[in-house]
Amino acid sequence: MDSRLVFVTGGGKGLGLAITRLLLKEGYSILVASRIRSEELSELERQYEGCVFFDTLDMSQISDIHAWCTAAVKNYGIPYALINNSAIAHDGVLGTMHESQIIETITVNVTATILLTKYLSRSMLRRGEGRIVNVSSIIANTGFNGLSVYAASKSAMTGFTKSLARELGKANITVNALAPGYMATAMTEGINKAQLDQIARRSALRRLASSDEAASALVYLLSDAASAITGTTITVDAGNTA
Fold it and tell me: Which residues are registered as beta bridge partners of 56?
């Protein structure tokens, strides 16, 4: 594959699928790393044959990540960009949430993401260029009832992004975060329509941002025009946090 190879975790549904689709339209080659190959992703594989590939990765199995990264670089090539999109959320009040759900959320959203970045950034360092985008959330700053652990995990991505940008900047590798607002994806299925309508009404644009709009901002971060942007978080929320 060429130098425009992008690894996208959780790229088979929701925001990850929108990211994959837009990157393909821009001419990137994509490796989607996820637990399950969705039908939507299979359709993209047929439509963009030879440009998009799927490789099974379970982010909850952190002991497998090093070997997966080694094999992925060997089989597909050194990634130009890594999109850390994969995440889970358990909706529930902290006091009654099971410990296993807390541990799973932090393991997948934080520990696995950091380990994956650790091993894949090594190949970027050898090449002397690269882009890393960590998908955060506006909930990291605003909070949301029943999502305290998820919010903590997304807040971690902000600090991780800023510090890693300083570590990798001298190697011409940018590190940024994307903070989407509330969108109609699987991650917001636990929010009822009345709540989403209320969120839309209080947003500056009086609507929710779409997954394609958030994905477009991420595509920009991979472009040559964004080569001087690093260590920052781009918010796409239709003005919900304005």
Answer: 34
What percentage of the chain has pLDDT greater than the value 70?
A: 95
Q: Check residue 196 and give its pLDDT.
A: 80
Q: Provide the token pair at 88.
A: 């889970």
Q: Domain ranges in the chain?
A: 5-236
Residue 82, CB-side half-sphere exposure with 13 Å CA sphere = 28
Cα angle for residues 138, 141, 143 (degrees, 5° grid): 85
Query: Where are the extended beta strands (E) located within the chain?
Result: 5-9, 29-34, 52-56, 81-84, 130-135, 173-180, 233-236
Active site residues: 150
pTM of the full structure: 0.94
For 134-177, the pLDDT digits (tens) are: 999 999 989 888 899 999 999 999 999 999 999 999 999 999 99
Looking at the domain 5-236, which fold is it?
Rossmann fold (3.40.50)
For 82-126, give the DSSP string: EEE-------S-GGGS-HHHHHHHHIIIIIHHHHHHHHHHHHHHH
Closest to 210 measured CA to CA, from 241, 188, 177: 188
